[in-house]
Design a protein that fits this description.
Blueprint (H helix, E strand, L loop, with lengths): L1 H20 L5 E4 L2 E3 L7 E2 L1 E5 L2 E6 L1 H4 L8 E4 L4 E4 L1 E6 L1 H9 L1 E2 L7 H14 L6 E6 L18 H5 L7 E5 L4 E4 L1 H7 L11 E5 L5 E7 H11 L5 H18 L2 E9 L1 H12 L6 E7 L7 H12 L10 E9 L30 H13 L3 E6 L2 H15 L8 E4 L8 H6 L3 E4 L9 H14 L5 H6 L4 E3 L11 H10 L19 H15 L17 E4 L16 E6 L2 E5 L1
Parallel strand pairs: 1-6, 2-7, 8-15, 9-10, 10-11, 15-16, 16-17, 17-18, 18-19, 19-20, 20-21
Antiparallel strand pairs: 1-4, 2-3, 4-5, 7-22, 11-12, 12-14, 13-14, 22-23, 23-24
Helix pairs in contact: 3-8, 8-9, 11-12, 16-17
Length: 573
């Protein structure tokens, strides 16, 4: 009998030990409507977090098994929860520059209000150096009106505000900027100035520069002005951190910096080492050809050569390169297979970057294990990118190269995305009716507007799709108007006009997947982020309304109540 008691006691001790060895959550979130983006179990009501990862996902009762004496339990009161959003095309450095300089919003500001912002900045920031920022509405050639402003797209417009300091302001397309006369003087731009390769110094009918610079010509001003802007700790505190706070408040937990430069990468690394990052970063370093001067070219070369030095697991990865092949619709700098309307031989351009150089470097970078994101808006530039991806696929490459924007896709090229496993990254900010489309319609015609952003076609074919706002090239990085527009192809809240190709509307689940698991796949992180699943990093957001229950035309009103990255709350409304 004594032996039996001993055996039972040992068994009980063993069971107790097993129970004590069960994982215990730091936090359990209960009573929620959790949309996991996990096809095997898309809806749950609770989840447990241990450290920086999801420990378990399931029902309220199932999560009770992970509760210990120190576990914090948070009742979400039926709130809607989803994975953190992945912003796959953004320029945080330019956003920081605008926040530290001039920040304009032409959709909600009259020209008089914009002029006052510029004037006030100069008044409160004395000095003689460059004043920079953006964004102006679409700039025109020949001194015509800045779209919707009532003032000319001409240096005289800025001269009416500031004459004693050089000024450069980007337009909303991000491929053109406007100078004042002081800026042209500093840069030595005159009637005799020739266009740089891949760029345009816009001149009027009399051959005089108007102050508008397009494509690589814009870099003439930008590279000069950048030398005066803050770096290091000043950039982190006054530029990058405010940008990241803005993005966290909109539900973003990971982003792709798609024109990364060396000193900004240095800042990201410093923040990662100091545990100051509140976003996971995937960086695509701008190829040296993107820069005009040797100083900047060398900085790009060194950043690419030393990209592994920036790697910080799950937080920072700079193993990508960015190319920009063409420009923006509305400026006739996108490259088309077929000529522009009213011509027989004008296909747009010039090429921002030499396509032969691009094809050569694409193969070289792929062999180094570098993923390439290539800006392609026009049909010919997208075709050229797909040709480059095909060339490395033939060599056995499996890297997740992407077409940035994927705007005008020639129908013949649609099947190639799936065949080549090319990621289609799209920019829905630009696809619902916006003022710029009136310009594009005149340049390309209604027939080719039917080709714009073929979201449903590519999604139905099984193509991996991600989404990026292109902010601050786009005016607002808020994802919820974009999600709505992806479903409706109309302005937020609805409207009488829809963008051509309403057949490319997609459903809400597809839109959410593009902003979560689609972005994670493009970043080569879908094994650790993009869905709410056991073992993945605990990146999630709590919203004030259930996207699947509200009227579609109310999605744009959504607000983020809480953003959590790696189990830590980085934003609380």
């Amino acid at each position: 009998m004594m032996k039996l008691y001993i055996v039972v006691a040992l068994m009980l001790l063993s069971l107790t030990a097993c129970k004590n060895n069960d994982p215990v959550a730091d936090v359990i979130y209960t009573n929620a409507k959790v949309y996991t983006v996990n096809e095997a179990a898309p809806w749950e009501e609770a989840f447990a977090v241990q450290g920086e990862k999801f420990l378990a996902v399931g029902s309220n009762s199932e999560m009770a098994a992970y509760r210990g004496k120190d576990t914090k339990v948070i009742d979400l009161g039926g709130r809607f929860v989803m994975p953190g959003l992945v912003e796959e095309h953004i320029h945080p450095d330019m956003g920081a520059e605008n926040l530290m300089g001039i920040l304009l919003q032409p959709s909600v500001m009259s020209w008089q209000e914009q002029a006052q912002v510029i004037s006030n900045f100069a008044k409160h920031n004395k000095g003689s150096g460059w004043i920079t920022g953006g964004t102006l509405n679409w700039l025109a050639d020949n001194g015509e009106e800045i779209l919707g402003s009532g003032v000319p797209s001409h240096y005289s417009t800025l001269d009416n505000i500031i004459t004693d300091r050089p000024v450069m302001l980007w337009d909303i397309g991000g491929h053109a900027l406007l100078l004042n006369s002081k800026g042209m003087q500093v840069l030595g731009i005159t009637a005799a100035s020739e266009n740089p390769e891949g760029g345009v110094i816009v001149k009027d009918a009399q051959g005089q520069p108007t102050g508008v610079l397009r494509e690589t010509a814009a870099n003439l001003a930008y590279e000069t002005a950048l030398k005066e802007l803050p770096r290091g700790q000043a950039l982190i505190e006054h530029g990058i951190k405010p940008v990241f706070q803005t993005l966290n408040a909109l539900g973003f937990t990971a982003i792709s910096d798609v024109w990364a430069r060396y000193y900004v990468l240095d800042a990201y690394r410093q923040m990662a080492d100091n545990n100051e990052l509140t976003l996971r970063l995937r960086a695509f370093i701008s190829d040296p050809i993107e820069w005009m001067t040797e100083e900047w070219k060398q900085g790009a070369r060194e950043a690419i050569a030393n990209h592994k030095d920036y790697y910080r697991e799950n937080w920072l990865d700079a193993s990508g390169v960015k190319f920009v092949l063409d420009g923006s619709a509305g400026g006739q700098t996108i490259i088309m297979v077929e000529p522009y309307e009213g011509t027989t031989d004008v296909h747009g351009g010039p090429w921002r970057n030499d396509p032969a150089y691009f094809a050569k470097k694409f193969i070289e970078y792929d062999a180094m294990g570098l993923t390439i994101k290539s800006h392609g808006v026009g049909t010919q530039s997208i075709r050229t990118i797909l040709d480059a991806i095909e060339s490395v696929r033939e060599k056995g490459s499996i890297l997740r190269h992407s077409v940035a924007h994927t705007t005008f896709v020639h129908p013949e090229d649609l099947p190639r995305f799936k065949a080549l496993n090319a990621v289609a990254e799209m920019s829905p900010y630009f696809w619902y009716p916006a003022p710029g489309w009136s310009i594009v319609r005149g340049e390309l015609g209604d027939r080719r507007l039917e080709w714009v952003f073929p979201f449903k076609t590519l999604s139905d074919q099984g193509v991996n799709i991600s989404v990026g706002s292109d902010w601050p090239v786009a005016e607002d990085p808020n994802p919820f108007p974009l999600i709505e527009s992806m479903i409706t192809r109309r302005v937020a809240g609805g409207g009488s006009e829809a963008l051509a190709s309403e057949k490319q509307r997609i459903d809400l689940a597809t839109a959410v997947k593009a902003f979560t698991l689609g972005g994670a796949y493009a970043q080569n992180r879908d094994d650790v982020i993009g869905s709410i699943e056991s073992g993945k990093l605990a990146d999630f957001i709590v919203l004030d309304q259930n996207l699947f229950e509200v009227d579609t035309y109310a999605i744009h009103k959504t607000q983020v109540l809480q953003t959590v990255v790696g189990g830590k709350t980085v934003f609380q409304r």
